[in-house]
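Methods — Computational structure assignment.
A single polypeptide chain was analysed. Its primary sequence is given first, followed by the predicted tertiary structure written as structure tokens.
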Amino acid sequence: IALVNELAIIFNKLKIDTLDILRTAGTKWNFLNFKPGLVGGHCIGVDPYYLTYKAEQLGYYPQVILAGRRINDHMGEWIVQQLILKMARKKLPIGETEVLILGFTFKDNCPDIRNTKVIDLISTLNNYGMRPVIVDPLADAQEVKDTYGLDIHNRINGKKKYLAAIVAVAHNEFKNIETNEWENMIELEGVIIDIKGIVPRTINALRI
């Protein structure tokens, strides 16, 4: 996943769509379909550090594992930077702007919020003076409040439009959003960062 995240950063600079490249590569029979994005949870996000800690105790510095973690751990910050660059090019306001965050759990169609990397998106947005509005139909609002001190909503406010949005988790509820609903959700000149590749291509979201 770290390798694909690094490729996504490179492809972004080349103005190439990473998901298009992966779909094309998937025509090869033995292709392993890893996708870029936020890497939370315990198995990949935490457990490698137990191994690297023990390795360093034994006098060996594990380079590949730690390099992979460094890339994955900085993806949230990089994604927000892409959002801000896009907004700046459109001369949209940054500070105090509400940013719709779709998804808070650490993986799709799962209520588990432990070690979610969506928190990195939110922390970085806060650092830029932006105001995240978090929507997750599966996460328990009280658990999120108790664990992270954040307020979340279980449903999208259908009467409100946003200048910016980040699709962080591909819950089925978000996959089922129709094109006209996306159009009603985001201002005409607004910016969507689609980490999961679920927004219709006609919306022109920036895919990671």
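Note: Strands lie at 98-102, 131-135, 152-153, 162-167, 186-194, 206-207.
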